[in-house]
Specification:
Length: 350
């Protein structure tokens, strides 16, 4: 038996749930979200968005949160936040998130979700908060002192998951400490207040290969190595053209020695469903120029229908706002009902 709380334990449960999801989708509620700090890119698409759409279409109850309060965990401005939120809704819709099945909503519009933070914070110690490796890494990257919000946001994230009784959370490995503390909070709440209000959620760990950025590092807007869903075909071509390759003419797949060339091959592989080695062999001695032309074509072909749908939403901001307002409305009902249960469990009924 793997240790409780270990990566192996999470992975084992994740695999069990994946098998069960197809048989009993009605047992599951998925909650996941993104910080609205920029446009979604291919890394998001292949890493998580595609999986969300799959779960949605399987009949799982799916909810997608645009985590606007998390924007101020490690930065001191909310500049462009409204624009980022609307654009994130457009990206989701273009990728196939269906608002009739999947409410899309923001933190700041759900007061009852945020209110859960108070009882939840009473269930964890400062030492537990300090131990979270993701928070430590984010603090170091921010170059700022640790703020109260950065230290406690994993508990706020527990509110996100638990207010709608989410029991499956598709996330990357960096988020596993947050799922673990969410399980702890749920368990302690139920024990302390003697009521089974909250489920203990599980992570769904993605087994998709991580799509690298064009330079071989993690794909990230801040590295300038990402292909956003919202870019034009020309912008995409330009970004790929400018990506770093190396002096070797013959194209081969070798992530360690040739990160630039290999990242391009993986990008094309994901977009075409072919393997990197097959593409490398086909291009062979034609060199980096031919590789880049092939990658550009495959990315632009793959994104064409997504971009076409996106244009429709770009031209209909009123609809985009409606989607968000409706998501906020539905999730407020859910949050208020849960907060009522919490108040009842705590005897705070007046
Ligand atoms: N912390 C997540 C990220 O940075 C975003 C997020 C906010 C989230 N609330 C969540 C993810 C709840 C899963 C569940 O990507």
């Amino acid at each position: 038996m793997p240790n409780v709380g270990s990566f192996e334990a999470s992975l084992e449960r994740s695999n069990e749930i994946k098998a069960d999801l197809a048989i009993h989708p009605e047992k599951y509620t998925m909650l996941t979200g993104d910080r609205p700090t920029g446009r979604l890119h291919l890394g998001h698409y292949f890493g998580t968005i595609r999986e969300r759409v799959r779960l949605q279409n399987m009949g799982v109850a799916t909810r997608v949160l645009i985590a606007d309060y998390q924007v101020i965990t490690d930065r001191d401005t909310t500049a462009n936040i409204q624009d980022n939120v609307y654009n994130m809704v457009m990206d989701y819709l273009a990728c196939g998130i269906d608002p009739a099945k999947t409410p899309i909503y923001v933190h700041s519009a759900i007061p009852a979700c945020n209110q859960l933070l108070l009882p939840f914070l009473s269930l964890v110690t400062e030492a537990e908060l300090q131990r979270n490796p993701t928070v430590k890494a984010e603090m170091e990257a921010s170059g700022h002192a640790l703020t109260g919000l950065l230290l406690t946001y994993p508990i706020h994230q527990a509110c996100d998951i638990l207010f709608c009784k989410g029991n499956v959370v598709p996330v990357g490995k960096d988020q596993l400490p947050h799922i673990e503390i969410t399980r702890t909070v749920a368990r302690r709440f139920n024990e302390r207040f003697g009521a089974r209000v909250f489920p203990e959620p599980d992570a769904l760990i993605s087994d998709a290969i991580e799509i690298p950025g064009l330079d071989g590092r993690k794909m990230s807007k801040s590295y300038g190595n990402a292909i956003s869903l919202s870019m034009t075909a020309e912008e995409t071509a330009k970004r790929i053209r400018k990506s770093q390759t190396d002096g070797e003419r013959r194209i081969t797949f070798d992530k360690e020695r040739r990160p630039g060339v290999s990242a391009l091959l993986t990008t094309a592989a994901l977009c075409t469903g072919r393997s990197e080695v097959e593409i490398a062999e086909e291009i062979g001695d034609a060199g980096a120029g031919a590789l880049k032309a092939y990658v550009t074509q495959s990315v632009n072909d793959f994104l064409a229908p997504i971009r076409e749908r996106r244009h429709q939403f770009e031209n209909d901001l009123a609809y985009v706002k409606d989607v968000l307002h409706e998501g906020n409305r539905v999730m407020n009902e859910v949050a208020n009902a849960t907060l009522d249960e919490v108040r009842a469990a705590m005897g705070m009924v007046y």
